[in-house]
Design goal:
Length: 189
């Protein structure tokens, strides 16, 4: 089974599975381009030196370390961060070696709200804030389509068919009782 299906209990199904927004990878990709550009430029500058091979090895080593630290690690962190909404709970997992996670039963969530500034609105993400009955609010940053996720969570939390609006005659909702016209009422002649 693939993640997160291997964590589900009987009868539970995944409603939503997201990674953080790609916005969180903008700086790592910029670092990748700059480091590669500087490494190539440095290798070209030292190619005429008598110790060019050693200098190019040092430049390549520094470039590889910087790329591993400033690009590959954030990319892996992004890829291994999961925000999952199931029919029973909200799961949030981060990490590869040091894995951190939290599960919040839907029945414990008392409110769900979102915040997003101008840049978040432009790229289509935001911060999701969930309040439960016993804890401080939990914030989840860079959630893609945060407004839709907030609406979906609200619907999952309030999945009681008796508290939703239904039009008369809809399944599970009795049709409205017909009352006689005021002119047909007894004693109105």
């Amino acid at each position: 089974m693939a993640y997160p299906d291997d964590l589900l209990s009987d009868g539970e199904r995944v409603v939503l599975h997201k990674h953080p927004h790609w916005k969180m990878l903008l700086l790592p990709y910029l670092v990748l381009v700059v480091v590669l550009g500087l490494a190539i430029w440095g290798a070209i500058l030292v190619q005429d030196l008598s110790w060019a091979m050693i200098a190019q090895i040092i430049i390549a080593g520094v470039a590889v370390l910087l790329i591993a630290w400033l690009f590959i690690a954030p990319f892996i962190r992004w890829r291994t961060t999961h925000f999952v909404v199931t029919t029973d709970r909200v799961m949030y997992r981060v990490g590869v070696v040091n894995r951190t996670g939290i599960d919040i039963p839907l029945s414990r969530i008392s409110s769900v709200r979102f915040e997003h500034g101008l840049i978040d609105r432009i790229v289509g993400c935001g911060t999701l804030i969930m309040e439960s009955s016993a804890q401080d609010p939990l914030t989840f940053d860079d959630i893609p389509n945060v407004e839709k996720v907030q609406t979906l969570l609200y619907r999952e939390v309030n999945d009681n068919p008796n508290d939703d609006f239904h039009s008369p005659g809809a399944p599970g909702f009795p049709a409205t009782q017909q009352f006689p016209d005021a002119g047909d009422a007894p004693g109105r002649r």
